[in-house]
């Protein structure tokens, strides 16, 4: 996983989900973050689009359910 993207994502994820960034592991996902519900997922997507100057399509958004998957989608979108 790309460290700079991962670090930025952890900070954004923590802010959107209202959790301490230190509690987010490299495997943070919808299964491990209690506040990661559908509303916060969409807030996260909008935040990521703004932060990384990207626009995600529906299939990407549905796939972005964990920190590693989000990193993968962002790296592919930037390639």
Protein described:
By secondary structure, the chain is mostly helical. The protein has one domain (3-78): Orthogonal Bundle (Non-ribosomal Peptide Synthetase Peptidyl Carrier Protein, Chain A), CATH 1.10.1200.10. The chain has four helices and no strands. It has helices spanning 3-17, 38-52, 58-63, 67-78. Helix 1 (3-17) crosses helix 2 (38-52) and helix 1 crosses helix 4. The radius of gyration is 11 Å and the shape is globular. The model has no long low-confidence stretch (mean pLDDT 93).
Approximately how much helix is present in the residues?
Answer: 55-70%
The CATH architecture term is: Orthogonal Bundle
Briefly, what CATH class? Mainly Alpha
Q: What is the fourth-level CATH superfamily?
A: ACP-like
Q: Could you tell me the number of beta strands? A: 0
Structural class: mainly alpha
Order of secondary-structure elements:
HHHH
Strand content: under 5%
Ends distance = 15 Å
Low-confidence stretches: none
**Number of helices, counting only DSSP H or I runs of 4 residues or more:** 4
Q: What is the general shape?
A: globular
Biggest beta sheet attributes: none
Mean pLDDT: 93
The radius of gyration is 11 Å
Instruction: Give the domain tally.
Output: 1
Find the CATH topology: Non-ribosomal Peptide Synthetase Peptidyl Carrier Protein, Chain A
